Amino acid sequence: MNIYGKISTLIAACVALIMGAGLVTIYLKYAAEVEKTQQLKDRIAILSQQEKRSAVMQRVNEQMEEIANQERRISDEQRIEAEKQTAVAEQMRQNAEEERQNALEAEQRAVEASKVAKSERIIAEQQRAEAEYQKRVADTLSYITLARQLGDVSIKNSESGNQELAQLLAYASQLFTIRYNGDVYASPVYQSLFIASQSQQQWTPHRGAVYDLAFFFDKDNHFVTCSNYGELIKHNIKNGNLVSEVLINNSAYDFRDAHIDREKGIVYAISRTGHFFILGNGHNKVLSVNDIGVLQKMEVADKQVLLIGEQGIAQVSTENGSITRTRPFSFKSVTICRADDSPCIFDGNGRMHIVKSFDQIESKKLPFKGQVTAYASSKSSQIKAYGMSDGSIYYVNPRGQIQKLMGHRSRISKIKIINWRIYSSSYDGKVNLWLADQAKIEPMTIITTNGWILNFTFDEKKENIWCVDQKGTLTESFISVPIMRQMLKKKVKRNLTREEWNYYIGRNIPYEPFIGKEAQL
pLDDT tens digits for 481-507? Predict the structure, then answer.
């Protein structure tokens, strides 16, 4: 019984344990279910909240969508309106662009029209200026032609002895030449002025032919002349009179050249007889020069004098007055002149010999035939002129071209060149002026004498020209145009009458007096 009771108790205990375990299990399951249920509730609550939130969000989204739709509709309406406005603006822009283009085209047309008008105005002004210029040219040519015609008529009246009318017409010739910028060296204009101004004076202090004249160029304008009659005379002009002082008067000598040492005040002279003279400033010496033939010319430089004869040259010291060297020529000297800064000698065989120094003589053949009797050249204008024994002149221009000039009837005795003006003297008793810068080079006689002109030179200012001839005469004449104008102005004592004006000048030219008003000469 005890065993059965223990077993029953054990069974009951086991049952109780099993039941307790089942209850625990059931409780645990219940607790798990409760927890699961609670989790589900919590999840449901969360889902409910999420659903509510989602509903709210959905409603918000719907509202937002509605707002977005409204805004889209508004935006679409605004876009459509903006497109309309853009189209309107584009249309307005196009209209404005068309108007701007039209304005630009109008402006361009206006500019072109302005240019055309300006061009036409310029053309019109040019045509007017050209017409005025052509009129001035025509007037100028007309007045310059008139001036030359008046010069010709003045010369003819002077030749016929009507000096008063000749002076009036020469004055008119100068007046129109100056006023219209004509050439005062045109032959009739210059010659009529020269003749009408009566600027020429003559003296005859020598018995023999005068071969040279040399200036001291001092304040009293002293000069020396020498003759083939052994006369060496010193002169100066006082109150229009020639005052002379005889230095040598010995017919045994034949003077051909004189030179003045301005610094020392010494006179040098040579005689064809072979004598060299040194005079003045305490000197009075005569040297006999042999072995070089008759003396023709001398060249003074520094402390020595080069004497040139027909057959050679000699060198003289000016310090002690002695001959230091002589040298014979291989030719015969005929004419002696200057080539720039050197003596040049022409022989009788068509050759030119330039004396560069005592020991150097350069020779060359001339490009023409005939005997040269005078020569000159100009560094400034680069021209040359050869005077010939037959009275012709060979002119060489700067390009080396040679032209033969005819204007003298006899041997050319001297040529001088000042710039483009060539002065020539001849045994025909004339001094001619040639304007080498003119298209046609023609002679213009400025001095006429009754003797063979053997030499001429200018004063220091080149206002006067002095000529010497074989009759022993000295001829002084003004060559300065301003001085001759002043002299002519002083000689004009009345005006042309109306009848004289109409006859010589013309009715179509307004009358004007020459005196009683400020003259333009």
Answer: 898 999 899 899 999 999 999 999 988
Residue 6 φ/ψ, nearest 5 degrees: -70, -40
pLDDT digits (tens, 9 = 90+) for 230-269: 999 999 888 878 999 999 999 999 999 999 988 888 899 9
Which DSSP string corresponds to 143-154? HHHHHHHHHHHH
Tokens 């035939």 sit on residue:
369
Q: Are 317 and 358 in contact (CB under 8 A)?
A: no
DSSP-derived 3-state class of residue 374 = strand
Rounded distance, CA 136 to CA 122, Å?
Answer: 20
Residue (of 387, 405, 392, 400) closest to 442 by Cα position: 405
Question: In angstroms, rounded to a whole number, what is the distance separating the alpha carbons of residues 280 and 268?
Answer: 9
Residues contacting residue 286 through CB under 8 Å, at least 6 positions apart:
275, 276, 277, 278
- Which residue, 430, 472, 469, is CA-closest to 451? 469
Q: Which two tokens stand for residue 391?
A: 């009275």
Chain centroid, CA 287 distance in Å? 53
- pLDDT at 290 exceeding the cut of 80: yes
Dihedral of alpha carbons 170, 173, 179, 183, sign: negative
- Tell which residue, 425, 416, 414, 413, has the closest CA to residue 381: 416
Geometric angle at alpha carbon 272, from 266 and 275, rounded to 5°: 50
* Spatial contact of 318 and 306, defined as CB atoms under 8 Å apart: no
**243 is written with which tokens?**
């005052």
pLDDT score, position 29: 76
d(CA 166, CA 55): 139
Q: In sequence order, which ranges of 206-341 are alpha helices (DSSP H)?
A: none
- Which positions ≥6 away from 269 have C-beta within 8 Å? 224, 226, 232, 248, 255, 257, 258, 259, 276, 277, 279
Task: Give the span between the Cα atoms of 233 and 250, in whole angstroms.
Answer: 12
Strands 474-478 and 266-271: unpaired
Q: CA 397 → CA 366, 382, 400, 441, distances in Å?
A: 15, 7, 5, 12
Q: Which two tokens stand for residue 181?
A: 């910028």
Burial of 312 from C-beta contacts in 10 A (0-12 / 13-18 / 19+): middle
Position 375, amino acid: Y
For residue 174, which of 191, 159, 158 has the smallest C-alpha distance? Answer: 191
Tokens describing residue 364: 């060359």
- Collapsing DSSP states into helix, strand and coil, what is residue 211? strand
Bridge-based pairing state of the strands 360-365 and 342-347: unpaired
- Output the pTM of the full model: 0.70
Distance of alpha carbon 383 from alpha carbon 373, whole angstroms: 18
Please give, one letter per residue, the 3-state secondary structure of 29-71. Answer: HHHHHHHHHHHHHHHHHHHHHHHHHHHHHHHHHHHHHHHHHHH
